[in-house]
Amino acid sequence: MSKISIKETQNPTILKFEFQDFITQNESFEFKNIDEAKASPLAQQLFYLPFVKTVYISGNFIAIEKYSIVEWDDVKDDVAEQIEEFVKNGGTIITVDENKTKKQPVTVYGETTPNPAALKFVVSKMLTKNAIEFKNIDQTGASPLAKELFKFPYVKEIFIDENYISVTKYEINDWQEITLELRSFIKQYIENGGTVLDENFIQAVTEKEDTKAKEFNNLDVTSQQIINILEEYVKPAVQADGGNIAFDSYNETDKTVKVILQGACSGCPSSTFTLKSGIENMLKSMLNDEAIKVEAVNA
Protein backbone atom coordinates (compact mmCIF):
# COMPACT_ATOMS: atom_id res chain seq x y z
CA MET A 1 0.00 0.00 0.00
CA SER A 2 1.52 3.32 -1.08
CA LYS A 3 1.81 5.99 1.55
CA ILE A 4 -0.74 8.76 1.50
CA SER A 5 0.44 12.34 0.92
CA ILE A 6 -1.14 15.08 2.99
CA LYS A 7 -1.71 18.30 1.05
CA GLU A 8 -3.05 21.66 2.22
CA THR A 9 -5.73 23.47 0.19
CA GLN A 10 -6.67 27.14 -0.17
CA ASN A 11 -9.20 26.56 2.59
CA PRO A 12 -7.46 25.99 5.95
CA THR A 13 -10.36 23.80 7.19
CA ILE A 14 -9.93 21.37 4.24
CA LEU A 15 -7.05 18.92 3.90
CA LYS A 16 -6.41 16.56 0.98
CA PHE A 17 -5.20 12.99 1.47
CA GLU A 18 -3.69 11.93 -1.86
CA PHE A 19 -3.14 8.42 -3.21
CA GLN A 20 -0.58 7.56 -5.89
CA ASP A 21 -3.32 5.98 -8.00
CA PHE A 22 -6.84 7.04 -8.92
CA ILE A 23 -9.50 5.87 -6.49
CA THR A 24 -12.54 6.89 -8.57
CA GLN A 25 -13.13 6.68 -12.30
CA ASN A 26 -14.15 10.13 -13.58
CA GLU A 27 -16.48 10.67 -10.65
CA SER A 28 -16.63 13.08 -7.73
CA PHE A 29 -18.52 12.53 -4.48
CA GLU A 30 -19.41 14.81 -1.62
CA PHE A 31 -20.85 13.54 1.65
CA LYS A 32 -22.17 15.81 4.39
CA ASN A 33 -23.00 13.09 6.92
CA ILE A 34 -22.87 9.33 7.57
CA ASP A 35 -26.31 8.70 6.01
CA GLU A 36 -25.32 10.39 2.76
CA ALA A 37 -22.14 8.28 2.67
CA LYS A 38 -23.79 4.89 2.02
CA ALA A 39 -21.84 4.59 -1.26
CA SER A 40 -18.54 4.92 0.62
CA PRO A 41 -17.74 2.64 3.56
CA LEU A 42 -14.52 4.63 4.06
CA ALA A 43 -16.38 7.96 4.30
CA GLN A 44 -18.81 6.37 6.76
CA GLN A 45 -15.90 5.31 8.96
CA LEU A 46 -14.39 8.81 8.78
CA PHE A 47 -17.66 10.35 10.00
CA TYR A 48 -17.15 8.54 13.30
CA LEU A 49 -14.40 11.09 13.91
CA PRO A 50 -16.21 13.95 15.73
CA PHE A 51 -14.40 16.72 13.84
CA VAL A 52 -15.27 15.53 10.31
CA LYS A 53 -17.76 17.89 8.65
CA THR A 54 -17.63 16.93 4.94
CA VAL A 55 -15.87 14.22 2.93
CA TYR A 56 -15.01 14.73 -0.76
CA ILE A 57 -13.77 11.85 -2.91
CA SER A 58 -12.45 12.59 -6.39
CA GLY A 59 -9.66 11.47 -8.72
CA ASN A 60 -6.72 10.38 -6.58
CA PHE A 61 -7.68 12.04 -3.30
CA ILE A 62 -10.00 12.23 -0.33
CA ALA A 63 -10.54 15.77 0.98
CA ILE A 64 -11.89 16.29 4.47
CA GLU A 65 -13.42 19.48 5.82
CA LYS A 66 -13.18 19.71 9.60
CA TYR A 67 -15.10 21.50 12.32
CA SER A 68 -13.02 23.99 14.32
CA ILE A 69 -12.90 21.81 17.47
CA VAL A 70 -9.46 20.52 16.47
CA GLU A 71 -6.40 21.73 14.57
CA TRP A 72 -5.26 19.73 11.55
CA ASP A 73 -1.71 19.57 12.88
CA ASP A 74 -2.97 17.54 15.86
CA VAL A 75 -4.98 14.95 13.90
CA LYS A 76 -3.85 14.80 10.24
CA ASP A 77 -1.29 12.01 10.71
CA ASP A 78 -3.82 9.85 12.57
CA VAL A 79 -6.39 10.40 9.80
CA ALA A 80 -3.87 9.45 7.09
CA GLU A 81 -2.94 6.33 9.05
CA GLN A 82 -6.61 5.39 9.48
CA ILE A 83 -7.22 5.72 5.72
CA GLU A 84 -4.12 3.64 4.95
CA GLU A 85 -5.16 0.89 7.40
CA PHE A 86 -8.68 0.80 6.00
CA VAL A 87 -7.45 0.32 2.42
CA LYS A 88 -4.70 -2.14 3.44
CA ASN A 89 -7.33 -4.33 5.11
CA GLY A 90 -9.34 -4.49 1.86
CA GLY A 91 -11.93 -1.86 2.76
CA THR A 92 -14.05 -0.37 -0.04
CA ILE A 93 -13.43 3.31 -0.75
CA ILE A 94 -16.42 3.78 -3.04
CA THR A 95 -19.09 1.34 -4.27
CA VAL A 96 -19.50 1.51 -8.04
CA ASP A 97 -23.12 1.36 -9.22
CA GLU A 98 -22.98 -0.52 -12.52
CA ASN A 99 -26.64 0.30 -13.28
CA LYS A 100 -26.01 4.02 -13.15
CA THR A 101 -26.05 5.81 -16.47
CA LYS A 102 -22.54 6.41 -17.73
CA LYS A 103 -21.34 9.80 -16.61
CA GLN A 104 -19.76 12.23 -19.01
CA PRO A 105 -16.45 13.05 -17.27
CA VAL A 106 -15.58 16.74 -17.28
CA THR A 107 -12.92 18.79 -15.58
CA VAL A 108 -13.78 22.10 -13.93
CA TYR A 109 -11.28 24.58 -12.55
CA GLY A 110 -11.56 28.02 -10.99
CA GLU A 111 -9.83 30.96 -12.62
CA THR A 112 -9.47 34.41 -11.08
CA THR A 113 -10.79 37.50 -12.88
CA PRO A 114 -9.90 41.20 -12.52
CA ASN A 115 -13.05 41.49 -10.41
CA PRO A 116 -12.26 40.17 -6.90
CA ALA A 117 -15.97 39.38 -6.38
CA ALA A 118 -16.14 37.13 -9.47
CA LEU A 119 -14.58 33.75 -10.24
CA LYS A 120 -14.65 31.97 -13.57
CA PHE A 121 -15.32 28.20 -13.53
CA VAL A 122 -13.89 26.79 -16.75
CA VAL A 123 -15.40 23.51 -17.99
CA SER A 124 -13.71 21.06 -20.39
CA LYS A 125 -16.65 21.16 -22.82
CA MET A 126 -18.71 23.77 -24.69
CA LEU A 127 -21.77 24.91 -22.73
CA THR A 128 -23.29 27.52 -25.04
CA LYS A 129 -22.60 29.74 -28.03
CA ASN A 130 -24.85 32.45 -26.62
CA ALA A 131 -23.80 34.46 -23.57
CA ILE A 132 -26.48 34.85 -20.92
CA GLU A 133 -26.52 36.67 -17.58
CA PHE A 134 -28.69 36.06 -14.52
CA LYS A 135 -29.02 38.72 -11.81
CA ASN A 136 -31.28 36.64 -9.55
CA ILE A 137 -33.08 33.28 -9.25
CA ASP A 138 -36.28 34.66 -10.83
CA GLN A 139 -34.47 35.14 -14.14
CA THR A 140 -33.24 31.53 -14.37
CA GLY A 141 -36.06 29.99 -16.40
CA ALA A 142 -33.59 29.29 -19.22
CA SER A 143 -30.95 27.67 -17.00
CA PRO A 144 -31.66 24.92 -14.45
CA LEU A 145 -27.96 25.05 -13.47
CA ALA A 146 -28.11 28.78 -12.68
CA LYS A 147 -31.27 28.15 -10.63
CA GLU A 148 -29.43 25.55 -8.51
CA LEU A 149 -26.38 27.82 -8.08
CA PHE A 150 -28.56 30.65 -6.73
CA LYS A 151 -29.53 28.35 -3.86
CA PHE A 152 -26.04 28.88 -2.44
CA PRO A 153 -26.50 31.92 -0.15
CA TYR A 154 -23.28 33.59 -1.30
CA VAL A 155 -24.09 33.58 -5.05
CA LYS A 156 -25.04 37.05 -6.26
CA GLU A 157 -24.94 36.84 -10.08
CA ILE A 158 -24.21 34.23 -12.77
CA PHE A 159 -22.93 34.63 -16.31
CA ILE A 160 -22.62 31.68 -18.72
CA ASP A 161 -20.72 31.83 -22.00
CA GLU A 162 -18.89 29.34 -24.22
CA ASN A 163 -17.11 26.90 -21.85
CA TYR A 164 -17.32 28.75 -18.55
CA ILE A 165 -19.61 29.90 -15.75
CA SER A 166 -18.71 33.18 -14.11
CA VAL A 167 -20.02 33.48 -10.53
CA THR A 168 -20.17 36.80 -8.66
CA LYS A 169 -20.42 36.43 -4.89
CA TYR A 170 -21.62 38.50 -1.97
CA GLU A 171 -18.96 39.64 0.49
CA ILE A 172 -20.10 37.27 3.27
CA ASN A 173 -17.65 34.57 2.14
CA ASP A 174 -14.08 34.50 0.86
CA TRP A 175 -13.37 32.52 -2.30
CA GLN A 176 -11.12 30.10 -0.42
CA GLU A 177 -14.12 29.07 1.70
CA ILE A 178 -16.48 28.34 -1.21
CA THR A 179 -14.46 27.56 -4.38
CA LEU A 180 -14.19 23.80 -3.75
CA GLU A 181 -17.90 23.52 -2.98
CA LEU A 182 -18.93 25.41 -6.14
CA ARG A 183 -16.44 23.60 -8.36
CA SER A 184 -17.55 20.17 -7.06
CA PHE A 185 -21.21 21.08 -7.51
CA ILE A 186 -20.77 22.33 -11.11
CA LYS A 187 -18.67 19.27 -12.01
CA GLN A 188 -21.17 16.78 -10.56
CA TYR A 189 -24.16 18.61 -12.05
CA ILE A 190 -22.72 18.53 -15.59
CA GLU A 191 -21.37 14.96 -15.29
CA ASN A 192 -24.78 13.73 -14.13
CA GLY A 193 -26.37 15.12 -17.29
CA GLY A 194 -27.95 18.20 -15.72
CA THR A 195 -29.22 20.88 -18.13
CA VAL A 196 -27.01 23.96 -18.27
CA LEU A 197 -29.22 25.89 -20.72
CA ASP A 198 -32.64 24.95 -22.07
CA GLU A 199 -32.84 24.23 -25.81
CA ASN A 200 -35.96 26.42 -26.12
CA PHE A 201 -33.87 29.29 -24.84
CA ILE A 202 -31.24 28.62 -27.52
CA GLN A 203 -33.97 28.85 -30.17
CA ALA A 204 -35.21 32.14 -28.70
CA VAL A 205 -31.66 33.50 -28.71
CA THR A 206 -31.18 32.47 -32.35
CA GLU A 207 -34.34 34.40 -33.28
CA LYS A 208 -33.02 37.36 -31.27
CA GLU A 209 -29.71 37.14 -33.15
CA ASP A 210 -31.61 37.30 -36.47
CA THR A 211 -33.45 40.40 -35.26
CA LYS A 212 -30.13 41.92 -34.13
CA ALA A 213 -28.65 41.33 -37.59
CA LYS A 214 -31.57 43.17 -39.18
CA GLU A 215 -31.23 46.00 -36.65
CA PHE A 216 -27.48 46.18 -37.38
CA ASN A 217 -28.22 46.87 -41.04
CA ASN A 218 -30.47 49.78 -40.05
CA LEU A 219 -27.81 51.46 -37.88
CA ASP A 220 -25.66 54.40 -38.92
CA VAL A 221 -22.16 53.61 -40.23
CA THR A 222 -20.35 54.75 -37.04
CA SER A 223 -22.51 52.50 -34.84
CA GLN A 224 -21.76 49.56 -37.15
CA GLN A 225 -18.02 50.31 -36.96
CA ILE A 226 -18.19 50.50 -33.15
CA ILE A 227 -19.99 47.14 -32.93
CA ASN A 228 -17.41 45.52 -35.21
CA ILE A 229 -14.50 46.91 -33.14
CA LEU A 230 -16.10 45.72 -29.89
CA GLU A 231 -16.75 42.25 -31.34
CA GLU A 232 -13.29 41.80 -32.84
CA TYR A 233 -10.95 43.50 -30.39
CA VAL A 234 -12.69 44.00 -27.05
CA LYS A 235 -14.97 40.98 -26.57
CA PRO A 236 -12.22 38.29 -26.67
CA ALA A 237 -10.28 40.12 -23.96
CA VAL A 238 -13.22 40.61 -21.59
CA GLN A 239 -14.43 37.04 -22.21
CA ALA A 240 -11.00 35.79 -21.12
CA ASP A 241 -11.67 37.63 -17.85
CA GLY A 242 -15.05 35.94 -17.38
CA GLY A 243 -17.17 38.81 -18.64
CA ASN A 244 -18.85 40.26 -21.69
CA ILE A 245 -19.51 43.63 -23.30
CA ALA A 246 -22.51 44.49 -25.46
CA PHE A 247 -23.20 47.58 -27.57
CA ASP A 248 -26.20 49.59 -26.34
CA SER A 249 -26.25 52.83 -28.34
CA TYR A 250 -24.26 55.62 -29.97
CA ASN A 251 -25.30 59.26 -29.78
CA GLU A 252 -23.99 61.16 -32.82
CA THR A 253 -24.62 64.54 -31.19
CA ASP A 254 -22.41 64.16 -28.09
CA LYS A 255 -20.33 61.24 -29.45
CA THR A 256 -21.23 59.01 -26.47
CA VAL A 257 -21.01 55.24 -26.85
CA LYS A 258 -23.07 53.32 -24.29
CA VAL A 259 -22.20 49.69 -23.53
CA ILE A 260 -23.55 46.99 -21.22
CA LEU A 261 -21.09 45.14 -18.99
CA GLN A 262 -21.89 41.55 -18.00
CA GLY A 263 -20.43 38.74 -15.91
CA ALA A 264 -17.18 39.47 -14.09
CA CYS A 265 -16.99 42.90 -15.78
CA SER A 266 -20.22 44.05 -14.15
CA GLY A 267 -19.42 45.88 -10.93
CA CYS A 268 -15.69 45.22 -11.32
CA PRO A 269 -13.59 47.91 -9.61
CA SER A 270 -11.26 48.08 -12.62
CA SER A 271 -14.05 48.20 -15.26
CA THR A 272 -14.22 52.03 -15.27
CA PHE A 273 -10.48 52.18 -15.87
CA THR A 274 -10.79 49.59 -18.66
CA LEU A 275 -13.61 51.55 -20.29
CA LYS A 276 -11.79 54.86 -20.20
CA SER A 277 -8.15 53.94 -20.79
CA GLY A 278 -8.73 50.86 -22.91
CA ILE A 279 -11.93 50.84 -24.93
CA GLU A 280 -12.42 54.60 -25.21
CA ASN A 281 -8.84 55.14 -26.41
CA MET A 282 -9.17 52.28 -28.87
CA LEU A 283 -12.36 53.73 -30.39
CA LYS A 284 -10.85 57.24 -30.56
CA SER A 285 -7.84 55.85 -32.41
CA MET A 286 -9.63 53.43 -34.75
CA LEU A 287 -12.42 55.87 -35.62
CA ASN A 288 -10.01 58.80 -35.67
CA ASP A 289 -12.26 60.90 -33.44
CA GLU A 290 -10.93 62.30 -30.14
CA ALA A 291 -14.42 63.41 -29.02
CA ILE A 292 -15.71 59.87 -28.45
CA LYS A 293 -16.72 58.95 -24.90
CA VAL A 294 -17.61 55.49 -23.57
CA GLU A 295 -20.04 54.92 -20.71
CA ALA A 296 -21.40 51.74 -19.15
CA VAL A 297 -25.17 51.70 -18.79
CA ASN A 298 -24.88 49.46 -15.70
CA ALA A 299 -21.53 50.55 -14.20
What can you see in these coordinates?
- With 299 residues, the chain is of the alpha+beta class.
- It has 7 helices and 13 strands.
- The chain has helices at residues 41-46, 72-88, 144-149, 175-191, 199-218, 221-240, 271-286, and strands spanning 5-8, 14-18, 28-31, 52-58, 61-66, 108-112, 118-123, 128-134, 155-162, 164-169, 243-251, 256-263, 293-296.
- The chain has a 5-stranded antiparallel beta sheet, with helices on both faces.
- A hairpin with a 1-residue loop joins β9 (155-162) and β10 (164-169).
- The radius of gyration is 24 Å and the shape is elongated.
- The relative contact order is 0.11.
Keywords:
34% helix, 299 residues, 7 helices, 5-stranded antiparallel β-sheet
Order of helices and strands: EEEHEEHEEEHEEHHHEEHE
Tell me, briefly, the overall form: elongated
Find the count of extended strands (DSSP E, 2+ residues). 13
> What does the largest sheet look like?
5 strands, antiparallel
Helix content range of the residues, please?
25-40%
Q: Walk across the major sheet and give the strand order.
A: 1-2-5-4-3
Distance between the termini: 57 Å
Percent in strands: 25-35%
- Class per helix and strand makeup: alpha+beta
Radius of gyration, whole Å: 24 Å
Poorly predicted ranges: none
* Alpha plus pi helix count: 7
The residue-averaged pLDDT reads 86
